[in-house]
Amino acid sequence: MSEQQSRPGRKRDSSRDGAILQATLDVLAAAGYEGMTTDMVAARANASKATIYRRWPSKAELVVEAVESLRAEPLGDAPDTGSLAGDLAAMLDTSGNAAESRKFKVVMGLLSLLPQDADLANAVQRRILGPRSAAIRVAVEREQARGGIVADRDAGLLALVVMATITYRLIVTGEPVDRTFLTALADGVLKG
């Protein structure tokens, strides 16, 4: 007998994923993470709760994937534009388009809940913050190899400084994270 047996029932319709993720973002924007329920998402997406739970084992996983779906392209490798500021701008998509603005607002709302929700904290770290931190570290290491940052500085610590500074700007001051800011961060703080 084959190890991979087909399961009874209909085959999974992956075309439903987009509608469910969009419904998740809509409900999240309206009710917030704590107020959001699977029932609300299911009703908005015209899907059953079972359909949602088959795809996403937890509310945290569903929300994180919905936030990731806002990104035009997967993060993938750290872009190499020839400068640290350019690399950071390419990673963060500083175009200021509405989807990015919405994504930042949703992510910032989620960040405030991380200390109270271990499942959400683990999902956000594993799928959003961890990969971005790793990409920023690669960009910092590349800048060190180009001679733009002193080689003996800890690239991991510098990547944390970048993430913390960007997060502070978004959450506390509400100022834009644009190319001008990223250039000042790269030149003034990391290279200084």
From TrEMBL:
The keyword Transcription regulation applies. Residues 37-56 bind DNA. SUPFAM superfamilies: Homeodomain-like, Tetracyclin repressor-like, C-terminal domain. Pfam families: TetR_C_11 (PF16859), TetR_N (PF00440). The keyword Transcription applies. One of its GO terms (molecular function) is DNA-binding transcription factor activity. It comes from the Bacteria. Keywords: DNA-binding, Transcription, Transcription regulation. This is Putative HTH-type transcriptional regulator. InterPro entries: DNA-bd_HTH_TetR-type_CS, Homeodomain-like_sf, HTH-type_TetR-like_transc_reg, HTH_TetR, Tet_transcr_reg_TetR-rel_C_sf, TetR_C. Residues 14-74 form the HTH tetR-type domain. PROSITE patterns: HTH_TETR_1, HTH_TETR_2. It comes from Nocardia aurantia.
